[in-house]
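Hi L., both proteins are below.
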Amino acid sequence: MAVIRWGCEGERHDSRMTEAAKDVLKAERAWMTPVKVDQHLVVNGDQLGGISFYAKWINSGRSPALQAGMWCAMRIEPRHADYPFFERINVPDNAIVGQGATVNSASRTISGQEFIDFMDGRLFVYFYSFVNYKDVFTDSVRKTEFCIRISFVSIIEKPDGRRELRFEMFNIGEQNNAT
């Protein structure tokens, strides 16, 4: 005589199947991830006049990021100051970022006396960026953000005569959910 079981075993099996399906969706969904904060120099003639920082993001997921909107901000603070909190703003959300595609945020520039004080180690730069997006599996908006503290370390002269600036960049504060 065969015994047919109903109830608990079937429910546990269904629960495991549901969790496995959720894991598949997580693996297939869009994942907007920061790659790095990069910079470009502002040069006036042959003099270094400032530096601009920007965030580079990648969709490391397996489906497009839909209705994506990105923003960045920068604050320049004395070394002894607490890290700032950046207010989120509403941004246009009309971009689509394909699987494996990278996008750059706008850049923020430090120049003049603040740049001199930053290079002399008296100031920190706090750089913040976020991206909002949806994926094909849900209508909910996903939000990824990060905040880093940047300090100048040194200038290295390359064999070809080019100069390269070196910085320390550390995640700081509670506005960091980027993985």
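That was the first. Here is the second:
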Amino acid sequence: MSSTMPVWGAVALALGVALITQVGALVLWFLQHRHEARQKSAEEWHRNLRWAADHVASDDDFANLLGINALDALDDKGKLSESDQRFIDAILATIPTNMDLPDAPADNIGSDLSDREDYTEVTQTANDSDGEQKEARRK
């Protein structure tokens, strides 16, 4: 008794092996592509975080406000790690409350910050002094 594989079995085996390797390669490619996209997104987020932190540390009041609003926008990202959230909070906590800031943006950017009393006072002071500066420029 000799046992031989039928032709259809050999064809099915060859196609099955080829199909399994192709599906495996496709799954690996998909996982790698998804990992690279997440990595690029995280790198861009950290680049934006550095940019915003540099603006917060700037001597220019407008750059400070721009950096604060950028940090606020970065803070609103839903899936922040605990360390990223603490880092942003630490930067925002070190912002002096006595600096003169220009007008806050008209739309919803910075809405979380406007709840803070010190931010509201600083913005109001900045608005008053900004009006005086605009009046002086007109003259």
